[in-house]
Amino acid sequence: MESPFRTIIVPVDGSRYAAAAVRYGGQLAHALKAPLQLVHVFPASPREMLERLANRAERIAVSYMKREQFNAMRDASAQRAFEAAREALPKGQASAEEIIVPGEPASGLIAHAQLNEAPLIIMGRRGLGSFRELLLGSVSERVVHHASCPVTLMSDKGPDALPSVLVVPVDGSTQGNRAAVHAASIARITGARIKLVHVYPRSSDEIPGIGAGMTGMAGIAPEMEKRFADMGREAARIAFEGARAAMNDKGLKIEEIRDGGSIHEAILDAAAEEKDTSAIVMGRRGLSRMKEMLLGSVSQRVLHRAKCPVTLVS
């Protein structure tokens, strides 16, 4: 089956976070038969570097730097990053293309991705510190929010193998269904099992910011509890049906999980309970105002707490 991605893009900076992303990206590129690009983003000029430096001593040093010295620094930085990335590539992985991209880390990476057809960005979740943080830093959050392509974030302790379980939270939204389609396209090639997860308030108490006082309202609470349960079951049915239809679920191994309580905790639990390697694939944005209230910034909480790779899909 043809890969849904034409290019796997991994930003590298020589850190252990980048190495984990390279290992994972290399395995995925090999499985999907997609080309792998290792991208090192570096300031376009001494002036651009100067504008982003906070340390006074570094600013003084750069202010006296000649263009030849700057170019030598850029090349040395890229060489270190690419050498570390080559060492992290899985055995059997075909050689990757190495590209130096000028510019600010997040915007440079996003602009580069836009030059490629059907890209997937895979990057480390954390930054580094000092000068390295300037080069890559915690740009992952900005890339997640502004890139139009799917973005996979992971910790420095990435899995040794591709995930055999893909956890996909669904809520009936376009974003959730797109995440399901993304997961299905990978599962058809890797054979991974898909866990569709729908989380809903089991009672008024579980509505963030509202429920605490509702159950004490005389004459309302008993009816509301049953209504919430009925609404939750119906919402789950609609969400699962929509996701399956979007995925064209024929031939896929799919499990449906209905849960209540905290949405991000239910998603994390669904991934953590697996003995096999898992990954989370979820929509990047909220939905209607009501659903946004229920969902909140779930993706942010999942990203910050997940131990497994997390892919966000627009």
UniProtKB/TrEMBL annotation:
Q: Which InterPro entries match?
A: Rossmann-like_a/b/a_fold, Universal_stress_UspA, UspA
Instruction: Say which domain of life the source belongs to.
Output: Bacteria
* Ranges for domain UspA: 5-153, 166-313
Q: Which Pfam families match?
A: Usp (PF00582)
Family membership: Belongs to the universal stress protein A family.
The name of this protein is Nucleotide-binding universal stress UspA family protein
